[in-house]
Amino acid sequence: MGNIKLITAFVISIILGTSTLYSADFIDSSAPSQLVGIGLRLGINKSSTGINYNNIFSDLEKGTNSWGTGFDAGAVVNLNLREFFTIQPGFFFQNKSFDSMLVMSVPSSTSFACRMTHSRYYYFSIPVMMSFRFNLSNNLKLLTEVGPYFSFGLGGDTDFKEYASIDQTGNISQQFTVDYFGDSNMKYVQMKKYDWGFKMGVGLMLWNRYSFGIYYNAGCRNIANDNDAYMHRASAKNKQWTFTLGYDF
């Protein structure tokens, strides 16, 4: 109920803000009234990792990754060059997760194996955004933002559940947990710590203080470890949607 009330209040504020529509220039290229500002950001994310399972396992029947839920929390610095244009570096703690399922079979056999995983992991991320701010009214601005991000993995783990049915052997099952990041002897299920990519999004800002934005992060680095056994054929890239509330001082 608290989230519904917050969203309702935000929508009402937007409606009230549009009462002065067209009273401000859509693009205000004048010098900024404030050169440097600080803001806080808090959001919910949906994240996953795109992995080309078919290139890793030749006997794969099915390989899927589902989107998991987490959160972003951090701060931004607004370096205002014009009223409509800001360079905005940010500093964020990110909590991410996703689930995966693999089903493999052996040709000319009734043997098969199923692996299910749940990964929960953490990043420190630094996006550097170009923020364009267009006046919809005196009190309401449209935000369009894009820029690169750089991330460092802080930790996390992956829980495994494996089940196999093997001809002339019977059924085998096991459960175990490994670090999400690393290069141990289980390298084929671990990821590299460093990542980079691009972040882009749109949003609304009310009274130059309150904001709501929807962002997409597209990872560009292949974060899969590349040991000879499996992952030398693998490609794994981060992807994430974030729904963010902000307050600028």
Helix content: under 10%
Radius of gyration, in Å, reads 23 Å
How does the major sheet shape up?
Answer: 8 strands, antiparallel, barrel
Number of strands: 9
Give the helix/strand layout:
Elements: H1 2-17, E1 36-51, H2 53-56, E2 60-82, E3 85-105, E4 112-135, E5 140-166, E6 170-179, E7 194-206, E8 210-219, E9 236-248
Antiparallel strand pairs: 1-2, 1-9, 2-3, 3-4, 4-5, 5-6, 5-7, 7-8, 8-9
Explain what you see.
There is one protein chain. This protein has 2 helices and 9 strands; from the N terminus they run H-E-H-E-E-E-E-E-E-E-E. Strand 3 and strand 4 form a beta hairpin. It has an 8-stranded antiparallel barrel. By secondary structure, the chain is mostly beta strands. It is elongated and about 80 Å long.
Name its key features:
mainly beta, 249 residues, eight-stranded antiparallel β-barrel, 8% helix, 2 helices, single chain
Explain briefly what this protein structure is:
The protein is built from two helices and nine strands, in the order αβαββββββββ. The longest helix is centred in the first third of the chain and has 16 residues, at 2-17.
